[in-house]
Amino acid sequence: MKAVRGERVSGAAALIVFCVFAMLVFSVIMLGAGAYKNIVGASRDGSEERICLSYVWTMVKNNDGAGGVYVEPFGGGPALHIVEVHGDSAYLTIIFHHNGWVCELFAEAGQEFSPDYGARVIKVDSLEFEQLEDGNIIATSGEISVFIAPRGRN
User: Fold this and answer.
1) 142 by DSSP, 3-state: which?
2) What is the pLDDT along the chain (154 residues), one digit of tens a residue?
3) Coil, strand, or helix at residue 113?
4) How far is CA 120 from CA 30, 37, 100, 130, in A?
5) Hey, where are the domains in the chain?
6) Residue 150 DSSP class
């Protein structure tokens, strides 16, 4: 009987050691998963801001005729206005931040617009525009800024 009792004690000790080891392994895996999730989230946030500013820069560079790019208030904040002339008609593209989204509104110049009509482009926390006295523009999304020098600035 004593031999059986010793086997039970050593079996229970082995089971306890195994359980402690399993809990430690599980804890390390959970810590690693949490760190990975935080890294991916930070990377995604910065990526969306960079994509947003790249979009703005590309829109300006593709449509920056003389006096055709300027910053004016729209929808409760500063918005980028880009004027394009096609034949006898002028069209206006407005890029602005509305309800957590970068939106684009394209219509014939001189019309009244509502920010709700804008097409959603990308979800970001913020997008701000500032036009400098020399006509250059600073676009900022989150902690990232881009300096834009339109070719046709005033």
Assistant:
1) coil
2) 455 555 667 778 888 988 999 999 988 898 888 888 887 776 666 788 888 889 899 888 887 766 688 999 988 889 999 988 888 888 889 999 999 899 999 988 888 888 888 899 999 888 999 999 888 898 988 888 889 888 765 4
3) coil
4) 36, 27, 10, 21
5) 46-148
6) -
Helix ranges (H only) for the chain are 2-62
Residue 63: closest CA among 96, 86, 89: 86
Order of strands, sheet of 89-98, starting from the edge strand that comes earlier in the sequence: 69-74, 77-86, 89-98, 101-108, 119-123
Query: pTM of the full predicted structure?
Result: 0.69
Nearest-angstrom CA–CA distance, 14 and 99: 58
Neighbours of 51 (CB within 10 A): 15
Return the residue matching tokens 């880009």.
82
Written as six digits, the tokens of 100 are 């957590």
Classify 137 as helix, strand or coil: strand
Beta-strand (E) ranges in 68-149? 69-74, 77-86, 89-98, 101-108, 119-123, 128-131, 137-141, 144-148
